[in-house]
Amino acid sequence: MKFIIILMSVISVCYSKDILGKLPKMADLLGISPRVAAMKKFKMLTNSPMYDKDIRPNLAENAPVQIGITMYVINYDFDPKSREMSMMMYFRQMWNDPRLVSNGITQDVYGGQSLMERVWVPDTFFSNSMDVDIVKYPTRNMFLKVKPNGDVMYNER
Q1: What is this structure's pTM?
Q2: What's the CATH superfamily of 2-51+60-156?
Q3: Contact 133, 87 (CB under 8 A)
Q4: What are phi and psi of 78, to 5 degrees?
Q5: DSSP string covering 128-142
Q6: 10 Å Cβ neighbour count for 52?
Q7: Per-residue model confidence as pLDDT tens digits over 22-40
Q8: Where are the beta strands (DSSP E) in 80-150?
């Protein structure tokens, strides 16, 4: 037990990509599944001083972030008298964050709001909207997937 606590403490202070790349072997020694190991490595990477979720990707290179957007409409309603429309939809955004690339993360990382709070997310808005309601009951309907190459896919209803 003491060995595991010391080992996890040593792992939590290591932020470089070289050390993160050696973690799968340590995960095998501890009997952790590859998906759990990828999640732990992702959490270490996003907790490091090298990653700041408030700074957009490619800012240092002064390059834009290409964001792909898709919408899947579930329900649509239009009132001709008031000329208002409402819709229920799934909204998906995709982009690449090169700061999330690590040799140690070999599997896709999936999660909800706790994972979303760790990464940079675009501030997308609908300019002519009167009101936007985000489904929050019982919890916010969101899903985030991060691939080992830094591709991020964010879904919300």
Answers
A1: 0.70
A2: Neurotransmitter-gated ion-channel ligand-binding domain (2.70.170.10)
A3: no
A4: -130, 130
A5: T-S------SSS--E
A6: 12
A7: 544 555 545 778 888 888 8
A8: 84-96, 109-111, 142-146
Per-residue pLDDT reduced to its tens digit, 133-157: 666 666 667 889 999 999 999 998 7
Q: Which amino acid belongs to residue 145?
A: K
Q: How far is it, in rounded angstroms, from Cα 14 to Cα 45? A: 9
5-24 per-position pLDDT tens digit: 333 333 443 444 444 455 44
Strands 84-96 and 151-156: antiparallel
Q: Give me 1's structure tokens.
A: 């037990």
What's the token pair of residue 91? 């909204």
Report the SS3 class of residue 73. strand
Give the CA distances from residue 72 to residues 92, 136, 155, in Å, rounded to whole numbers and listed in that order.
8, 18, 10
Q: Name the phi and psi angles at 108, rounded to 5.
A: -65, 145
